[in-house]
Write a structure and sequence with these properties.
heterodimer, A: 332 residues, mainly alpha, two-stranded antiparallel ribbon, 13 helices, 2 strands, 2% strand, B: mainly alpha, Ferritin, globular, binds fe (ii) ion
């Protein structure tokens, strides 16, 4: 799954901290400009490092919190084939979390530290996962729309200036397109099914459309980080550009399904060759971001409960590893 | 039909019924255990274990699909894997009762898994030589998966048994709790005997001896005690289950039951 442009709500990063030589900074920027990859041991501005840590960890948190709304339906998937595909999909998301935590670790933080930040509520994850999956069609809609939006967002990150993040994203993107297809296939089956199934599909689109459109983050006019992230080639397209791409790709898919996008003002604009939607209600986005979405508490609580319930297991594993090491030393 | 053919056909029908029942037992056991493991996804003690348990669930659901598809063909009533998984009630499920036991804590899940994996290791190993070539092929594929499952579960059994005082106590309690369901693993009935007679399935007594030796070795490595053998009133493989299975099925089957005839 994916992170929205969450960091755009923070403060503008301080680009050159005291003590960082201008020469280093200039050399760094020229390497970025030349599309060279920055690797963990290379010099980098502290603000670049901090921006990446925040973005990659938010992305990682989003992957693992994102396991919950769909994981919900593993036991209830309506056929064995769907069950198997859903398990594989949710498992992939966990794998994405692992690659991303590893990429973040190359910047000098530990996975446990990042995890604590998630559990304490200090770190953010994509707001989309604070919406509930109430029917099977919601599982289809997540794959189709949320993974679909994730692909739009993530493909440019495959060319991100930071090597480990870019490489993690290449692996992730391959799997995301399978996720999007399985979601679309669920929607297609429902759309061609009984009246009750078609209704279920339409309602899922009604629930997930606006949150998916908002996944791209605030509009460019309100987005504080975009310019700097563009210079660093962490970001390659603005939030609004990506959002537009998503809408242009998705609207014809909804038509193909025979479903209606829940935006009365949506229209095809001949002049720009784009679908133009109505205004986005950012007050909802901000409310969910502040913790007042339908499932914010449940999602964090589920992560905390799993972490607490697993503490004795993790302690046992490290105790056993220490005993093994001690026994090996003794034997030697 | 000549009298001789009719006489020969009668035992064949019984054999056919026994084969169907035998395959359903294997398929239902994988399905119910996979369903249980699916409950863990997103809630495991670490991300690595989350992925590990999901892997096991995925393999077991895959085995169930192959076995139930085959069962549907043997039955010949045009029931596919989903009709068998979603439209039978608890008394028509023939999984081992151990498979349906609740997840409990991670230790309890590991013990259940380890007992099931070491059982499947023996059964699938022998079934590779089955005179039923379809079953032999399914077993060969499943065995590769089961070897990996067993490494996962026995590895954790040792880690938890050897780890801390708390983990040792928890995992020993799980062994004590679940042991009563192991009697059923090797209790042969007329279905098993019929399968053995025609070389489709291995004699359970041989499998039990191997299983028992392996289990003892693992318990020793984990510094855990083997509980005394206990009589068992559950006969999951004969459709007599613990109360838990009804809830498992209610959750698993609810969409198929709510929207009869819909395709998903
Ligand atoms: Fe993902
Ligand atoms: Fe995904």
């Amino acid at each position: 799954m994916y992170t929205q442009a969450l960091d755009t709500h923070g403060k503008e990063p301080v680009v050159a901290a005291a003590g960082e030589s201008a020469a280093h900074a200039a050399r760094f920027q020229s390497r970025v400009d030349a599309d060279e990859k920055i690797e963990p041991k290379d010099w980098m501005p502290d603000a670049y490092r901090q921006t990446l840590i925040r973005q990659i960890s938010q992305h990682a948190h989003s992957e693992i919190v994102g396991m919950l709304p769909e994981g919900n339906w593993i036991t209830r998937a309506p056929s064995l084939r769907r069950k198997a595909v859903l398990i594989a999909k949710v498992q992939d998301e966990g794998g994405h979390g692992m690659y991303l935590y590893s990429a973040a670790e190359t910047l000098g933080v530990t996975r446990d530290h990042l995890f604590e930040q998630l559990l304490s509520g200090a770190a953010k994850y994509s707001s989309i996962f604070n919406y509930p999956t109430l029917t099977w069609a919601d599982v289809g809609a997540i794959g189709w729309l949320v993974d679909g939006a994730a692909i739009m967002n993530q493909i440019p990150i495959c060319r991100c200036s930071y090597g480990p993040y870019a490489r993690a994203m290449v692996r992730i993107c391959k799997e995301e397109s399978f996720h999007q297809r399985q979601g679309f296939e669920i929607m297609l089956t429902l759309a061609q099914g009984t009246a009750a199934q078609r209704l279920m599909a339409q309602e899922a689109l009604n629930h997930w459309w606006w949150p998916s459109v908002m996944m791209f983050g605030p509009s460019d006019a309100d987005s504080k980080h975009t310019a700097q992230s563009m210079r660093w080639k962490i970001k390659r397209f603005s939030n609004d550009e990506l959002r537009q791409k998503f809408i242009d790709v998705t609207v014809p898919q909804a038509h193909f399904l025979g479903l209606t996008i829940p935006d009365a003002q949506l229209r095809w604009d001949e002049a720009t060759q784009h679908y133009i939607g109505g205004p986005i209600d950012w007050s909802e986005f901000n409310a969910v971001l502040k913790g007042n979405g339908p499932c914010n508490r449940e999602r964090l609580q589920a992560r905390r409960t799993a972490w607490e319930a697993g503490r004795w297991v993790r302690e046992a594993a490290s105790a056993h590893a220490e005993k093994l090491a001690a026994r090996t030393t003794q034997a030697a | 039909m000549s009298r001789a053919v009719a006489a020969a056909a009668r035992p064949d029908r019984a054999l056919h019924e026994a084969l169907l029942r035998y395959v359903l037992r294997l398929g239902d056991t994988s399905l119910v255990l996979g369903q249980r493991l699916g409950e863990w996804v997103g809630h495991a003690p670490t991300l690595e274990e989350d992925l590990g348990l999901a892997n096991l669930a995925l393999d077991l659901i895959g085995q169930a699909r192959l076995l139930l598809t085959y069962a549907g063909e043997i039955e010949g009533r045009e029931r596919d894997e989903d009709a068998l998984a979603y439209l039978r009630d608890a008394p028509e499920f023939f999984n081992l009762a151990l498979a349906e036991q609740p997840n409990g804590d991670f230790g309890c899940t590991i013990v259940r898994q380890w007992l099931m994996d070491s059982w499947q290791l023996e059964i699938y190993t022998s079934l590779q030589e089955s005179t039923d070539s379809r079953l032999a092929a399914i077993a060969a594929k499943a065995l590769k998966e089961t070897r990996y499952h067993y490494r996962f579960s026995s590895g954790w059994l040792v880690r938890l048994g050897d780890g801390t005082a708390e983990s040792h106590e928890r995992v020993q309690r799980a062994v004590d709790e679940l042991w009563r369901f192991t009697g059923e693993l090797f209790a042969a009935d007329e279905v098993d005997e019929r399968m053995v007679a025609v070389g489709i399935a291995p004699p359970l007594s041989t499998a039990e001896a191997h299983w028992s030796a392996r289990v003892d070795e693992d318990l020793r490595a984990a510094s855990l005690k083997r509980p005394a053998a206990q009589p068992y009133p559950w006969h999951g493989k004969r459709g007599v289950h613990t109360e838990h299975l009804g809830y498992v099925l209610a959750e698993m089957q609810h969409l198929q039951r709510t929207y009869p005839g819909a395709r998903w």
